[in-house]
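Case study: Nicotinamidase.
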Amino acid sequence: MKKALIIVDMQNDFCEGGALAVPGSNEIIPYINLLMEENEYEQIILTQDWHPADHKSFASNNGKKIGDNIILNGIPQHMWPDHCVQGTFGAEFHKDLNRDKVTHIIQKGTNVDFDSYSGFQDNNHFVKTGLDDFLKYHDIQLVEIVGLALDFCVKYTCLDAAKLGYVTCLHFNGTSAVNVKPDGGKNAIFEMVQNTVTVLG
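Here is what the predicted structure looks like once written out:
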């Protein structure tokens, strides 16, 4: 069974000191590097939040407060601080992440009107990123997923992978939750397990 490692959004803005820093984000980087060093993957894929500066998920572009929740183009949207803006330092991958074996990068969140938590598609479930096509082209059947943040982009990437028929494994030690809601991380794990995602220690 051919397998791939998907590393979700290990970017400066989600790491320590970033605009949308996830607690414990820097601590998972050595674990992710070790996975790449000790395992044989057919493909190692990075997803990258890559927002235009006027992205509608930013509170600043809607006259809203960070943390507000609105309906945007017919779907719920959490209001975030400006983050991972195309071409900025915050959008770059963290310098400590070993990218020597990375084979492909998927950029997401490029549509100004829709956010994209999943590495596979926008939140409106309409615009695909090309990740599914890439995996199928390389005959990948099993995906292991790590990165940031557990309760948002990692969760939705895992759920979509499972829905698309991949054997889907989450490395618990390779992710961390932003916990917008206090139990966000715990609830994300529960939801994933219910949807055939295997959680590895």
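For the exam, be able to explain this: The two ends are 21 Å apart (CA to CA).
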